[in-house]
Each structure stands twice: as structure tokens, then as C-alpha cells.
From TrEMBL:
Sequence ranges assigned to domain FAR1 in this UniProt record: 59-142
Name of protein: FAR1 domain-containing protein
Superkingdom of origin: Eukaryota
InterPro entries associated with the record: FAR1_DNA_bnd_dom
Length: 274
């Protein structure tokens, strides 16, 4: 128990957050309002900027990243009692590849350039996020015209997902569905995804599109096959709704071949995509 007005302190990751029962304390907290984030002008991240929550911080930095023209990743984060309290957002070209087996005569290709551009942010005991460190200097060229192609900026809208599903059921080739979406938005530069994203989504939907009882029939068939041949192996992966997500099987001949030629393994990732 504490007296009225007494401050409570909590040490977290070498930072001290202060909680006070003074109701007027929040009046001193500067929050970046939504109206300030919008608009055409690019707001540059600065130390001391504060946000209502982590998602608001991510959306703000994502908008800045898109305008400047580089890709971003969440490098690391810290938790306290299961709650994220610290994050570092870096340029995707941050770091250097280290491979002891790599020969100097045949260097492995890598996109990492050791870029130091990043921001760090932490939250206080009320959940208010504050930018702690900012480094905006890149050691490589940025390209705003390519921003839509970076993975962190690509997404499939609910409308596009539904259209892809319907067209796939109707037997319309995926490239035609994608070209149709491009025409609807007025060109490739207005697309929020690339054809590969659409193809990956259709593959995922196809794996889940099983008729009633199909998954059980597959399991029954494989179980009978395994009973006849002890070398047969299969594994089924189900989602939270007990729907089939992934299926793997290998017969005795394949397993024996793997023992002899295990240094080469191939996966046909184009099955049912063309």
C-alpha cells in the first residue's frame, strides 16, 4: 500500500518507468495524433515521439519506410511479464552474412550491406510507446518507386482473396485473374501485391479445399498402406479447426533411396499451380 500521490517505480530493461496517481500527469504526455500522421508530407521519425500503442508505432514507421523506399524488419524485442516493452526496427539490409565455410574465391551472394538505419522504441507502464533512438542514414540507395514490391508493404485485400478463390474454382488460370486485378486498379503501380503473393494464396486455399470426409479417407488409406508395409510413413498436419493443412508421406522405396542419395532432396512446389 502507498500513500495518496506516492509514486510507484518499476525497473525494466535498465529503464525506470514512473507511475503516479496524479490524474493530470497524462496531460504532459505528447501523443502523435492520427491527423498528424496522415497527409502527403513525410513525417521523419524523431527521438521523443510518442504513440498510443505498438501498432500505431509500426504503422507510422511503415508509412515513413514506404515514402523513403526501403524494406524494414523487426530485429529484436524484449518482453516483461509476457508483454512486449521494447522493439528495434531495422533496414532489411542490416547485418552481414557470416559463413565460415564460404570460400573467398567463391563468395556466396548476399543482400546484406551492414546498413545501420534503424529506430528503437520502448513502452512505459501505461503502454505509451516512445522512440528512443533514430538512425536514418543508409549505406545504400533507396527507391520509393519499388516500395510496393517490398514484402513488408505487400498485402492481399479481402476482395482480391475472394476473387482469386472464385476464379480458381471456376478454372480460370491464375495469371488471368491477376491481370484482371491489375486492370481494375489501373496498372501494376497501384497493386498492393505481386503475382507470387496471389499464387501462394491460391496454393494455400487449394490445400484446405477438401470435400467432406476427404481428409479422413486419406488417413484411412494411408493407415491401411502402413499396415501392409512397415516402411511406409505419413504425417498429417491439421489447423485449429481440424482441417488438413499439410500432408507428407514416403514409401519404403523412397526412404531407401534417401539413404543412398540423401545429399539431394527435391520438392515440387509448382504442383497444381499452373
Amino acid at each position: 500500500m502507498t500513500d495518496e500521490g506516492q509514486e510507484l517505480t518499476e525497473v525494466l530493461d535498465d529503464e525506470v518507468f514512473v507511475e503516479s496517481k496524479d490524474e493530470n500527469l497524462m496531460d504532459n504526455v505528447i501523443i502523435l495524433e492520427e491527423d498528424n500522421v496522415g497527409g502527403n508530407a513525410t513525417i521523419v521519425p524523431e527521438v521523443g515521439m510518442k504513440f498510443n500503442d505498438k501498432q500505431e508505432l509500426f504503422e507510422f514507421y511503415k508509412k515513413y519506410v514506404y515514402e523513403v523506399g526501403f524494406s524494414v524488419r523487426r530485429r529484436n524485442f524484449k518482453k516483461y511479464n509476457g508483454v512486449v516493452t521494447y522493439v528495434m526496427l531495422t533496414c532489411s539490409l542490416e547485418g552481414q552474412r557470416r559463413d565460415k565455410k564460404c570460400s573467398s574465391l567463391k563468395p556466396q551472394p548476399t543482400i546484406q550491406t551492414g546498413c545501420k538505419a534503424r529506430i528503437t522504441a520502448s513502452s512505459d507502464i501505461r503502454g505509451i510507446w516512445r522512440i528512443c533512438m533514430v538512425d536514418l542514414e543508409h549505406n545504400h540507395k533507396t527507391s520509393p518507386s519499388k516500395s510496393r514490391l517490398y514484402r513488408c508493404n505487400r498485402e492481399l485485400s479481402a476482395y482480391v482473396k475472394r476473387k482469386l478463390e472464385v476464379n480458381d474454382i471456376a478454372g480460370i488460370p491464375l495469371h488471368k485473374s491477376y491481370n484482371s486485378a491489375v486492370v481494375e486498379v489501373g496498372g501494376y503501380e497501384n497493386m498492393t501485391c505481386i503475382e507470387k503473393d496471389c499464387r501462394n494464396y491460391v496454393e494455400k486455399v487449394r490445400r484446405l479445399r477438401l470435400g467432406e470426409g476427404d481428409a479422413a479417407a486419406i488417413q484411412s488409406y494411408f493407415a491401411k498402406t502402413q499396415a501392409r508395409s512397415s516402411g511406409f510413413y505419413f504425417s498429417m498436419d491439421l489447423d485449429d479447426e481440424s482441417r488438413l493443412k499439410n500432408l507428407f508421406w514416403a514409401d519404403n522405396r523412397s526412404r531407401q533411396a534417401y539413404k543412398e542419395f540423401g545429399d539431394v532432396v527435391t520438392f515440387d512446389t509448382t504442383y497444381l499451380t499452373n
